């Protein structure tokens, strides 16, 4: 009987290989097969062992994708052969990574698993702004929202997010930007609220574009983003904040 080993669900981080955890790197180098997402960077895939097989399980929002059912089956089939399987997910597998669906398939097949967390893209994006996700006197909470899965989207507590201290990292939101804008304005958000778009956070082609809630859809359309982008609602780059500081100090 083939001995099965735990399936490792590993976070690849936002793309910069220097942000990969030591535990994740070890898992990649010991794996027999790595089943990876479309957004995992080539630099990270280059770190796998020389004998490791790579299998692309890419899912593209609103585009061609490997179905979740097929991904589940791929993981289980590889693991049942006794292979060391790493399911490699961009960012952190516990944040909008459909981890629970894959865990259910693995458990149903009688397989063990381990989870190796990774740095989520929101952390890399806010670091690129020179900001923090929470700040004393500004906000004591932050929301992580996905703009891709629209099911139940209208049920979010938009009124709470629309308050002056509202801060959110909104993943996969390029196509939902106009809906997000409408919901927030409908619930009292100020049109001048800053929204910073960070494309390809932590990667060499990272791009940061500033907008406001009022200008968000137009700025997104003009910018022509093609890579993964996060909307950092309620936050702007530190240099923009620093530029306003002398005026604030004069008022004080």
Automatic annotation (TrEMBL):
Single GO term (MF): uroporphyrin-III C-methyltransferase activity
EC number in record: 2.1.1.107
All copies of domain Tetrapyrrole methylase, residue ranges: 7-216
Pathway: Porphyrin-containing compound metabolism; siroheme biosynthesis; precorrin-2 from uroporphyrinogen III: step 1/1
Matching SUPFAM superfamilies: Tetrapyrrole methylase (SSF53790)
Annotated keywords: Methyltransferase, Porphyrin biosynthesis, S-adenosyl-L-methionine, Transferase
GO annotation, biological process: methylation; siroheme biosynthetic process
InterPro entries: 4pyrrol_Mease (IPR000878), 4pyrrol_Methylase_sf (IPR035996), 4pyrrole_Mease_sub1 (IPR014777), 4pyrrole_Mease_sub2 (IPR014776), CobA/CysG_C (IPR006366), Siro_Cobalamin_biosynth (IPR050161), Uropor_MeTrfase_CS (IPR003043)
Entry-linked PANTHER family: S-ADENOSYL-L-METHIONINE-DEPENDENT UROPORPHYRINOGEN III METHYLTRANSFERASE, CHLOROPLASTIC, SIROHEME SYNTHASE-RELATED
Family the entry assigns: Belongs to the precorrin methyltransferase family.
Protein name per Swiss-Prot or TrEMBL: uroporphyrinogen-III C-methyltransferase
Species for this entry: Marivita geojedonensis
């Amino acid at each position: 009987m083939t001995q099965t080993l735990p399936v490792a669900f590993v976070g690849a981080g936002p793309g910069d290989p220097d942000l990969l955890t030591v535990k994740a790197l070890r898992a990649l180098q010991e794996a027999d097969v790595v089943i990876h997402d479309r957004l995992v960077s080539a630099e990270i895939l280059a770190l796998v062992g020389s004998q490791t097989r790579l299998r692309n399980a890419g899912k593209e929002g609103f585009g061609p994708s490997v179905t979740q059912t097929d991904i589940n089956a791929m993981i289980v089939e590889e693991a049942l052969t006794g292979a060391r399987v790493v399911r490699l997910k961009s960012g952190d597998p516990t944040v909008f990574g459909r981890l629970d669906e894959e865990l259910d398939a693995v458990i149903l097949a009688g397989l063990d698993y381990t989870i190796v967390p990774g740095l989520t893209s929101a952390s890399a994006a806010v670091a690129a702004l020179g900001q923090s996700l929470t700040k004393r006197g500004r906000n004591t909470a932050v929301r992580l929202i996905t703009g891709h899965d629209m099911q139940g989207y209208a049920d979010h507590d938009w009124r709470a997010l629309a308050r002056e201290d509202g801060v959110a990292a909104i993943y996969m939101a390029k196509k939902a930007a106009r809906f997000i804008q409408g919901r927030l304005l409908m619930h009292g958000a100020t049109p001048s609220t800053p929204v910073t778009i960070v494309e390809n956070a932590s990667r060499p082609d990272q791009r940061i574009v500033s907008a406001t809630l009022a200008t968000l859809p137009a700025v997104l359309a003009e910018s022509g983003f093609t890579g993964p982008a996060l909307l950092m609602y309620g936050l702007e780059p530190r240099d923009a904040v620093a530029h306003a500081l002398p005026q604030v100090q004069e008022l004080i």
